Structure formats: C-alpha cells, structure tokens
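Q: I have 180 residues here and want to know how they pack in 3D. Can you give me a structure?
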Amino acid sequence: METELFSGKIFLRALEPEDESLLYDIENREEAFLSGANHIPFSHDYLQRFIYASLQENFFSTGQLRLVACCGENNKKEIAEPVGVLDIFNYEALHRRAETGIVVCPAYRNKGVGEKILALACTYAQNRLNLHQLYAEVPANNKNSLKLFAKCGFERCGIRKEWLLRADRWTDTVLWQKIF
C-alpha cells in the first residue's frame, strides 16, 4: 500500500507552554521507553518545568535543544499543527558537533515528514548553531529510522553491539553522522 506524501510546509519553533500535552504523549508512549534512555514515565508537572526551563536556558550552555516541527504558516501559530519533535543534544563546543533525534507524530508517519524535519535539523545545525556535524544512534531494529538517516545523507559509521537491553534481549545500535 502506497502512502500519500506530505506536501505541507514544515518549520521549527521553540517549545511553548501549550506543548506539554504533545510532550506528554511522545515521552510516555511505550516505543519511547524502548528507544530512549529513560524507562519511567514523565509527569505533567515535570514536563511543564522542562518547558519553562528550556525557555530560560541557552543551547550553548546546556547542550540541549528541543524544537517542535509544525505544519502551517510560521507567523500564524494558531493554525500551525505540530507534526513532530526535533532534539539536538550532547553538544560539544570544541568539536562543533551534537547528537540528533526526531519523533514524528503517528498521524504523519511514512509520509515524508521525517525527511523534512531531518533536513531542517541539518540546515539549522549548520547555519544557526554553526555545527560541523550531527550524529545519531539508532536501534538496529528500527528499520524506518535507519532508512530515514540513510536517505537524508547521513553516513553509517559504526555499530555498538548489544548496546540496549530491552525485554531481556540485547539490541545493537547503528551510528550515523553527517558532516557539513
């Protein structure tokens, strides 16, 4: 079955207080526990504090940036619909690199949205953050993410064997990097 490609304009914006429900849904899904380092649910209170802290802090001092990918007009917040979340983290100033990861909202998966978000991540990292490279670590069994990073010009540069423990089974991770 062929999926219809998403043709809307996507832009990135800072977290807003009203994004708490979006983050709650993303962070507390079972798949988030399987792919992330955190294995406990996040409360609404914790996410509210995270959002407010992110509005006060600077990427270059914290090493972490979370942006919301939206579809719609950049200057019309009320009609822009969130389609995913972009993380840029583990920033290393000396080496001008950071790790990246994205989550596409379920309704927008397998439609090309992930490619658009990852392309925006690369442009933002290179032009706004002045990074030399982005890298990612993807579970070896996450076929969609593996295809996405390859399609977006990231090079596969290694494997970490038995890196993640999930349901009493070890999973490898694949390392990707894109040098600008």
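Q: Anything worth noting?
A: DSSP finds six helices and seven strands in the chain. The first strand starts at residue 10 and ends at 14.
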